[in-house]
Amino acid sequence: xxxxxxxxxxxxxxxxxxxxxxxxxxxxxxxxxxxxxxxxxxxxxxxxxxxxxxxxxxxxxxxxxxxxxxxxxxxxxxxxxxxxxxxxxxxxxxxxxxxxxxxxxxxxxxxxxxxxxxxxxxxxxxxxxxxxxxxxxxxxxxxxxxxxxxxxxxxxxxxxxxxxxxxxxxxxxxxxxxxxxxxxxxxxxxxxxxxxxxxxxxxxxxxxxxxxxxxxxxxxxxxxxxxxxxxxxxxxxxxxxxxxxxxxxxxxxxxxxxxxxxxxxxxxxxxxxxxxxxxxxxxxxxxxxxxxxxxxxxxxxxxxxxxxxxxxxxxxxxxxxxxxxxxxxxxxxxxxxxxxxxxxxxxxxxxxxxxxxxxxxxxxxxxxxxxxxxxxxxxxxxxxxxxxxxxxxxxxxxxxxxxxxxxxxxxxxxxxxxxxx
Amino acid sequence: xxxxxxxxxxxxxxxxxxxxxxxxxxxxxxxxxxxxxxxxxxxxxxxxxxxxxxxxxxxxxxxxxxxxxxxxxxxxxxxxxxxxxxxxxxxxxxxxxxxxxxxxxxxxxxxxxxxxxxxxxxxxxxxxxxxxxxxxxxxxxxxxxxxxxxxxxxxxxxxxxxxxxxxxxxxxxxxxxxxxxxxxxxxxxxxxxxxxxxxxxxxxxxxxxxxxxxxxxxxxxxxxxxxxxxxxxxxxxxxxxxxxxxxxxxxxxxxxxxxxxxxxxxxxxxxxxxxxxxxxxxxxxxxxxxxxxxxxxxxxxxxxxxxxxxxxxxxxxxxxxxxxxxxxxxxxxxxxxxxxxxxxxxxxxxxxxxxxxxxxxxx
Lengths: 421, 363
What we know:
heterodimer; A: 421 residues; Sulfite Oxidase, Chain A, domain 2; Immunoglobulin-like; 2 domains; five-stranded antiparallel β-sheet; 7 helices; 23 strands; 10% helix; B: 363 residues; mainly alpha; Cytochrome Bc1 Complex, Chain D, domain 2; two-stranded antiparallel sheet
């Protein structure tokens, strides 16, 4: 392209050097046909000033990354204040989800509640019902927990068959953050749980309240009343100033804008734990209290929104794995739709009930692939196929789809969401 | 911490020592919740009736309250408008390919119905339903589902006598017995299955949000193409913004009182479930309302209006301040057969405010 001779990177121009590299891999190291003007010409950024400090007192991603945003699927819900959007997991690496693009799920919109106006009440079967201010909460000993939060409906649209093009939409109702807060156990002990108290009900301050019940054992175990995420205050859309973190359990139980903890001798059986978030089985009965998110994984790249554009040769296959039962111990990847499998690398620290990153570095020969990943957790549970799940749960399930995802990589590097037989 | 609270905490500690597991150090943080505070927030109603407030309501009253406060989304007969929840019918459908999950067919406990109505409904105006109204709506829903006669009255006295048809339809998570053993076997590594055949392609459904180039929304940019320069991005954004800017803002913008607009925005919460306004807003259950003030009635593109609304449109109805005020005061009275099942705004000041607000979100 002649335009590449201009000073500065030209608009939309194909860089000759880059293009040549794609075609020359088979012969060994690539050879440029002409000198790269990005190297031989002095670029503006190498000569003049960039932004001064304070150009952005609180920084946002550079505009080149403007495609890395949450997105929703409008036809899914009737109202955007009772809706969900999806984390761009196809565009992220590592394991921590930045708050600004971590999926949102509201039942009555994201409310604005200040730290000054915040109150948390503990009621029910306790020795002393208590009210805490935000400041009170900051005076309890703190814990730090990294945990994934996955909506029970993640992948629900795929239950009947491949439907959406891209892991942002098929597996993106998930985020993973490092939380700081007070163990719920300490607050319950402060109020003194009576012996007959067996269930803990958490309720939000928003109009939906989104109340959910959990057994006392869980509440006393690893549940956190969190007020920091990834080192800073929670975002409004994630429950500022205080949310519940319930590691391993479905996202709906991570009550945002937490305002009341009620201790009862029975489950409250709220709307969100009866009419919703229950799993209709083939016999017409339904499972309830299906809180734990079973082991699951997905290849985030290549994927429909992250096609292979560099041609054959070295290819990094990467993805995420997680289990609500504990640590991921292994992830296998198949290039042929599950005929043969090879073990991927678990990269970085593996944490219990948190996202785990895996990589598999392959030499792609340019032929079509049926990419799959399969997670194994520390209990020995192996992520099932969608059909294995359907055999047990039938076709009317919506929640807890942890089936294996298949990406069809075409010879041209484009990727499709498919189901296979 | 007050002296009395310390005493209380002390006795609680003593009690919990006896109780066993709750033995723990106290920090003396927080304060005792006052009874009226507990009463204000602890309003959950449990399956055994715990938490039910005193009160009652009958089917007839429930029908009226439902029509006013619920029917705009759930339909006059609880049949659900568009994709809003269906609350009646569906019994016997739970094994069908398209099960209809309603209060009558699926919900296990009546307490859940009352609790949710009383705590979280109507959508966008939670906690505006009195206990008596919640009993009445609950009674109406029982009637809509064929579970009681039309002379039925529900109260805290007879509440727990009602058993919903699907009360026995739920069981606790059994995956540990039915799934985990099946899925916890050593995974196959080679020759695990026959070569694959594609049976379904998402691309055939064409329901994924798309970028302007037709690719799935958010597709990563091609790194072999030069990036768009900041100036170019800015120009694109500016061009889009220019397209979205209304050519002529309605007169109300210039004259309306900001406080009135703000009040109107609050009133508009009652409309929000069905109507959208603002940049990027689209038709919902009701038409998009950008620029509605001063606009010819029934002319929002892509919205399927009722026949009377289309007739009014042909007749030249324009949504002047006065016309909107009349319509909003009594939608069904103003236009018999309108799809808008909202009962209307009773207070003139609310009507003025919401029209001022709508005038401020030009189109």
